[in-house]
């Protein structure tokens, strides 16, 4: 039987001692090391941490760091976790690893008949995944038929403050609706509390107030018209380029506003500043430009590529709302009529199972797993130009997965119409910096790529 669960595999060596010392340093005499040497009493540390965090000074518990391993949990758990932006994640890639024998989670059913139908459907889908890969379909395309109950393995590292936030969401927030997530939260709480009792001494009282869902009710008019655009820019900083240039000038020279306006009345000065900022290793001035964008028809597989960008405000609909009728079809599958028929049948098979179980009254605990990785939904995110610089370096590169390449290139085209002097500087690393960072994995087409992005 496969081992599964969430496990604390590492923690800051000095554990709560550093949190207690940080709680003392602002009010006690002595150097940082002297105060730390006075912070070895576990009972006093626990009481101090509880007192300090109750008063709202929760930054003190950011000094303890936890390393977690998620072993054979469903990809639903993975998606839930990676939306926490103040944690670090490394996930087993479905682009490179064969998942035909990875196994999958079987939720609780009321009877053996429903369970048997679920497992039969999932086995058929994994058999199709294997057939696709055996017939030369790349793993990154075959993965679209993987059901969202397949097992994922990944690492997560986060500080104590973010861990309490994660556990609150798992046990008292949106995670409580999915039994798998709820139980993993309880297990992690027990492990973390044994390591750091002060951090969790009042956890239940505080976390019971946690509310991560919206309570408004709005009547949405019915609308069958969906945008044909894969990328819709909803709003942006209308004076974004000027804002970036002003920020850079103040940061470097600190001149008066009138002097700035006079300097920037020359458009060549603006271009010179933008180019310099983009090339900088600390392009903080770029954060003065922000953009809110909607990406339409993003596959569940592609969600992880978007969510990995931490410095953004990404909003992803609850996976339970995903349409079972809409899905992505890769060109490699379209090229083979027989495989295309089987591929389409897979989505129809999952849709049929979903509708049957829903009609029988099964809730999110079961239905959340009845969706395929190739099903699509729409997401919205707000990024500043600094994060967009990284986004395009990675996602418009030929090494990026083809689906997110399409989103990135369409997004960049639209940004160049809005703000040409800034975004003509953006593109993959070879275009932006002149250097490809991929080493032996380079596409070897740097000259071609540079020409492409000059005229994108």
- End-to-end separation: 52 Å
Oligomer: single chain
Low-confidence stretches: none
The computed structural class is alpha+beta
- What does the radius of gyration come to? 25 Å
The SSE order reads EHHHEHEHHEHHHEHHHEHEHHHEHHHHH
Count helical runs: 21
**Overall pLDDT level:** 94
The residue fraction in helices comes out at 40-55%
Would you give an account of this structure?
- With 456 residues, this protein is α+β, with helices and mostly antiparallel strands.
- The chain contains 21 helices and 8 strands.
- The longest helix is centred in the N-terminal third of the chain and has 23 residues, at 112-134.
- It is globular, with a radius of gyration of 25 Å.
- The mean pLDDT is 94.
Considering the chains and any ligands shown, give keywords for the structure.
single chain; 456 residues; alpha+beta; 4-stranded antiparallel β-sheet; 13% strand
What is the topological layout?
Elements: E1 5-11, H1 16-25, H2 32-37, H3 42-54, E2 65-74, H4 75-82, E3 88-91, H5 112-134, H6 139-142, E4 151-159, H7 160-171, H8 179-195, H9 203-207, E5 231-236, H10 240-252, H11 257-264, H12 267-279, E6 290-299, H13 300-307, E7 313-315, H14 331-334, H15 337-359, H16 364-367, E8 376-384, H17 385-395, H18 402-418, H19 420-423, H20 429-432, H21 446-454
Antiparallel strand pairs: 1-2, 2-4, 3-4, 5-6, 6-8, 7-8
Helix pairs in contact: 1-3, 5-15, 7-8, 10-12
